[in-house]
Amino acid sequence: MLLHTNERIYEKKAVMSEQITGAQSLVLSLEAAGVTDVFGIPGGAILPLYDPLMDSKQIRHILVRHEQGAGHAAEGYAAASGRVGVCMATSGPGATNLVTPIADAHMDSVPMVAITGQVASSSIGTDAFQEADIRGITMPITKHSFLVTNPDEIPRAIAEAFHIASTGRPGPVLVDVSKDALQALTDFNWPTSMDLPGYHPVTRPHAKQVREAARLIVESRQPVLYVGGGVIRANASAALLRLAEITGIPVVTTLMARGAFPDSHKQHLGMPGMHGSVAAVGALQKSDLLITLGARFDDRVTGKLSSFAPNAQIIHADIDPAEIGKNRYVDVPIVGDLAEIIPDLIAAVEAENALNNRGDYEGWWSQLDHILQTYPVGYDFPTDGSLSPQFVIERLGIISGENSVFTSGVGQHQMWAAQYIKYNKPNTWLNSGGLGTMGYAVPAAMGAKVAVPDKTVWAIDGDGCFQMTNQELATCTINDIPIKVAVINNNSLGMVRQWQTLFYNERYSHTNLHTDRIPDFVKLADAYGCHGLRCESQDQVDATIEKAMSLNDAPVVIDFVVHKDAMVWPMVAAGSSNDEIQYARSIAPEWGGDE
């Protein structure tokens, strides 16, 4: 494979001395890879890199306040833009603080390169100061990891890291560079080709499998397009819309796929899963064919796996062959890039239609329309007059608009943001889906705003999540990254409290944050150089959001003080069958359309 050559890099090298340091080579390598933004914190082992980094006219380094923030910012940057996100940390604790965002990126298929400093190669394995085997630690949660102790190998390692991170199923790659390799002299040689034995992602689907999938589609009577985040990563949303419209098949989009298919489209049934719509969950359970595109049969979608979609044949298309058949038997496996699979599937379906083979889904839609009308996703307002968190989030989506980017922490506010904001475009909903990382929202919003500076970026956070990473507001203020933060403040760890209400006899063990405005989020915002606002009643919501929208000279934090016992509905209890979906505390008796 030929690599892009940045001629400016070679021109820059020509005016330098004959040899350069490994650190200079690493900076040139990042520039050759097209990097413009990096999130990180310096430290002893990586310090040699930071000196030449200061001279780069291409790369903007953003000094974060915690390495976890650097990793999540790189994730947000990648998820909002489709480009590879980059973060840096020093050895030992600096590197281990990146483990959570690396694991997060691995679970959610986010293209990211993490660069870490390492102790001198002669000290590796001696328990030297700030030494940690970060390559070994992260091996299960990276696509690949490099330990570079020879400065001559730096350009190739960086080139391969970016290629691996961004091709096939995207994911994180670690490049760990010893301090002596950064300090030693070397020649800079950016590779023009690479050979990676054993790494050959399949992109073109097998034509026979595609034709078989098309045959099942036109023969089925109750099919569902089960869409996962892989559609967004493949930039295949436009093709998905075409496939849905030519077939007339209902669509469900998972938590990671929100925005892959327009919420406003009449064929969209909503989000499936533990807190999915009754229509989406019911459609999967009653289907006779699942056309699974870039989804992985996650336990949060399937519930009790043995009872999931019991009568459905399975078409499973994914770029990662390891996912196919991992959790559920597959009738038609299709390995490849969804950007190529879906157009081929469209052509195959159109060929079937030309032979007068068309799916008849009229009866199926009659069932689904009944469920949609009987069990809409909705909420009640608190009887004590306190603020409804669902209302807040719903109004936030409406006022900010569909071109905004929304990130979220993990918990109730995450589910409400997935349920009550309408996503009509891909890359506008960023969250920690697979790992479920509290503290993701603020740094991810920071990274997203750097990647797409012309868009409004909201972090929807809980008061528990917000207190894990809000120090990155300082980073945002200092670096002119005006994100907006909506803190859904119920003075508790809301999702855990909901489980304690339902399954632990209301024994609220260590979920009450007892904040009493400790800290006071408005004062905290002010201390960080942000605009701080507070909203405590329904009649203040629109005006408060509109005020936040008008403030673009600094980050904005809104403290929405909401009802403590609001719950996320519908709900399928962990480990239960999707047949037992609860709709406002009671089993929905007609969720499947049987009467």
TrEMBL record:
Metabolic or biological pathway: Amino-acid biosynthesis; L-valine biosynthesis; L-valine from pyruvate: step 1/4; Amino-acid biosynthesis; L-isoleucine biosynthesis; L-isoleucine from 2-oxobutanoate: step 1/4
Keyword Flavoprotein: yes
Reaction(s) catalysed by this chain's protein: 2 pyruvate + H(+) = (2S)-2-acetolactate + CO2
Signal peptide region: none
Record keywords: Amino-acid biosynthesis, Branched-chain amino acid biosynthesis, FAD, Flavoprotein, Magnesium, Metal-binding, Thiamine pyrophosphate, Transferase
Single annotated GO MF: acetolactate synthase activity
Record bears the keyword Flavoprotein: yes
GO biological process, one term: L-valine biosynthetic process
Family according to the record: Belongs to the TPP enzyme family.
Protein's name according to its UniProt entry: acetolactate synthase
Originating organism: freshwater metagenome
